[in-house]
Design brief:
Helices cover about 45% and strands about 20% of the residues. Helix 7 links the parallel strand 6 and strand 7. The longest helix has 24 residues. The protein has 2 domains: about 180 residues, D-Maltodextrin-Binding Protein, domain 2 (3-Layer(aba) Sandwich); about 100 residues, Periplasmic binding protein-like II (D-Maltodextrin-Binding Protein, domain 2), CATH 3.40.190.10. Strands 2-1-3-10-4-11 form a 6-stranded mixed beta sheet, with helices on both faces. The chain has a 5-stranded mixed beta sheet with strand order 7-6-8-5-9, with helices on both faces. Helix 7 crosses helix 13. The chain has about 325 residues and is an alpha/beta fold. The chain is globular, with a radius of gyration of 22 Å.
C-alpha cells in the first residue's frame, strides 16, 4: 500500500514538474489560433488579425491564424477541443459557442468540459435598428405597432441560430409580439432591405449602422448592451425597458481542456498587454469594437452565464439547429 501511494505521489510530482518546465519554456514555437469561420476576410478576421499580430510580438512567437469553417463554427471549435492541450492550439470564440449546447443535439463537444477559457478579446455594441419609413421613434412605439398589427413586422438576422437571430426571438418573447423572421447571410443585404422598405427591423452591430444612422437612412431605437453606448448616448438600453434583455457580440480565446494553468496564465498576461497597446486599440476603434481585458475566471463565468441565458431562449422557442 505504501509503495503504491509512493508511486502515485511520484507520478503527481512528475506531472507538476513537467508543467512547470513547460510554463518556463512556453512558447518555443508558433501558436495556432483557429477562427471557426471561412473564408478569411470576414468581420471576425478584421478584429482578430491585428490583435493576433500584437499578441505574437508580446509573447515572442508568431500567432498563425487558421480559418476552419463549417457547421456554424462547430467544426473548427471541435477541432481545437480535440487538439493537444499544450498551449499551441487556441480557438477564437463567438456567441455561437454559448448557443450550440442547447440548440444543436449533434454537438460533438461540451464547451464547459472540453475547452478552457483563456480570456476575452473584444466586444461590439448591438443595436436595435428600424426602417425610418415606419415612423417609429422608440421601442415602446415599435411594440405598440406590432401588437396592433400582429405578423406584419419582419425582423432580420445574420446567421440562423446566432445571437442576432435569437436576440430577435427573445425580444418577441419579452414584449409579447408576433414578427416574421427573415434570415440573411450578411448584414449588408439586411441593411439594404431595411433602407428599401423590405425589412422592418434587426439587431445589428453598432459599427454597421453608424454612417446610416447619421444620414437618417436607418433609425436606431436602443442598444442591447447593459450600458449606454458612447457613440449614441441618447439611445436607451433594452434592459431598461425589458429587464434582463442583453445581446452580446464578444470574442474570446479558449484552449483545449487540461492545458496547464501556468500556460493559460502566460497567455492571459500576454493578451492583456496586447489589448492595452495603442496599436490594437486604434485598429479596434476603426472596426467599431472595444478591447475587453479579463481573467480566465471572469471569461469562464461569462461563458457559463451566456450558455444558461441562451438555453432558456432556445427552449422557449423550441429551436433546433441541425446544419452541419
Amino acid at each position: 500500500m505504501q509503495i503504491r501511494l509512493w508511486a502515485m505521489g511520484m507520478a503527481l510530482v512528475s506531472v507538476l514538474l513537467s508543467q512547470l518546465v513547460m510554463a518556463q519554456t512556453y512558447p518555443f514555437k508558433p501558436i495556432r489560433l483557429v477562427i471557426p469561420y471561412s473564408p478569411p476576410g470576414g468581420p471576425i478576421d478584421l478584429t482578430v488579425r491585428p490583435f493576433a499580430e500584437k499578441l505574437g510580438e508580446v509573447i515572442g512567437q508568431p500567432i498563425i491564424i487558421e480559418n476552419i469553417g463549417g457547421g456554424g463554427s462547430m467544426i473548427g471549435s471541435d477541432h481545437v477541443a480535440k487538439s493537444a492541450p499544450d498551449g499551441y492550439n487556441l480557438l477564437i470564440t463567438t456567441a455561437a459557442i454559448a448557443i450550440m449546447p442547447s440548440s444543436n443535439p449533434r454537438m460533438p463537444f461540451d464547451p464547459l468540459k472540453d475547452l478552457a477559457p483563456v480570456g476575452t478579446v473584444s466586444a461590439s455594441t448591438i443595436v436595435l435598428a428600424t426602417d425610418p419609413k415606419l415612423g417609429l421613434r422608440s421601442v415602446q412605439e415599435l411594440v405598440s405597432y406590432a401588437k396592433a398589427n400582429p405578423g406584419k413586422l419582419t425582423f432580420g438576422s445574420v446567421g440562423l441560430g446566432g445571437s442576432l437571430h435569437l436576440g430577435g426571438e427573445m425580444f418577441k418573447l419579452m414584449a409579447g409580439i408576433d414578427m416574421v423572421h427573415v434570415p440573411y447571410k450578411g448584414a449588408a443585404q439586411a441593411l439594404t432591405d431595411i433602407m428599401g422598405n423590405h425589412l422592418s427591423m434587426l439587431f445589428v452591430s453598432m459599427a454597421s449602422i453608424l454612417p446610416l444612422a447619421s444620414s437618417g437612412k436607418i433609425r436606431p431605437l436602443a442598444v442591447a448592451s447593459l450600458k449606454r453606448a458612447t457613440a449614441l448616448p441618447d439611445l436607451p438600453t433594452m434592459d431598461s425597458i425589458y429587464a434582463g434583455f442583453e445581446v452580446t457580440a464578444s470574442n474570446g480565446i479558449v484552449a483545449p481542456a487540461r492545458t496547464p494553468a501556468a500556460v493559460i496564465a502566460r497567455l492571459n498576461q500576454a493578451m492583456a498587454r496586447a489589448l492595452a497597446s495603442p496599436e490594437v486599440r486604434e485598429r479596434f476603434a476603426k472596426s467599431g469594437v472595444e478591447p475587453v481585458i479579463s481573467t480566465p475566471e471572469e471569461f469562464g463565468a461569462a461563458l457559463r452565464a451566456e450558455i444558461a441565458r441562451w438555453g432558456k431562449v432556445v427552449k422557449a422557442i423550441n429551436f433546433v439547429q441541425t446544419d452541419q
